[in-house]
Amino acid sequence: MDNVFIMDHPLIQHKISILRNKETGTNEFRKLIEEIAVLMGFEALRDLPLEDVEVETPIETCKTPMISGKKLAVVPVLRAGLGMVNGITTLVPSAKIGHIGLYRDPVTHEPHEYYCKLPDPIDQRLIVMVDPMLATGGSAIAAVNFIKEHGGKSIKCMFVIAAPEGLKRLHEVHPDVQIYVGHLDRELNERAYICPGLGDAGDRIFGTK
Ligand SMILES: O=P(O)(O)OC[C@H]1O[C@H](OP(=O)(O)OP(=O)(O)O)[C@H](O)[C@@H]1O
Ligand SMILES: O=c1cc[nH]c(=O)[nH]1
Ligand SMILES: [Mg+2]
């Protein structure tokens, strides 16, 4: 699939396996989500444009590449996406941060919006939307719809774990969006949870269950 990138780095796979373990506690879970966001961000940002700038070293003046052009906005989907924000700002400290608040209805699995605020204007920024989980795809599609309605044009989405169902749906609805996935899991269960997955990412990051 064009614009879909499934990570194969051993460090990402190793850390995801620790996340899956139900014995992994909140503190370790939170640290791992952030570390995985750094590693995935490193991959996802490998096409950032560079321009040569003049720098005076202690030896001589030279032209040397630095990031140019597009400024970055990190947009976590609340709550669980918050766990990935520091990973991206570790790489790009100047990034602005937007928020998209969505929760999934436990019965219909449809996303419900409760808070949204994006950097304004956003049309010239590269937007990195982050959420650990892509299940049915309903939340991610709603989040990308919102970003596009507010002028976002250049969008990358990062998920630690995705279900095939959600990945297919998101890609079909938003084929222009680049999708980065830490691990593609087997399927959704009857409650629309990812199998084998890691459970409810928000509850595990914030210790709410
Ligand atoms: O692809 P979908 O079927 O829409 O499911 C994925 C969404 O579900 C989770 O959030 P949740 O609704 O549990 O909210 P939370 O982060 O506040 O726990 C997850 O973090 C995604 O946002
Ligand atoms: O498996 C899942 C599905 C949706 N949201 C989660 O946090 N986990
Ligand atoms: Mg949740």
TrEMBL record:
One of its GO terms (cellular component) is cytoplasm. It holds the Pfam family UPRTase. Its cofactor is Mg(2+). 5-phospho-alpha-D-ribose 1-diphosphate binds at residues 79, 104, 131-139, 200. Residues 7-208 form the Phosphoribosyltransferase domain. It is an enzyme of class 2 (transferase). NCBIfam families: PRK00129.1, upp. This is Uracil phosphoribosyltransferase. It comes from Blautia segnis. The lineage of its organism: Bacteria, Bacillati, Bacillota, Clostridia, Lachnospirales. The gene is upp.
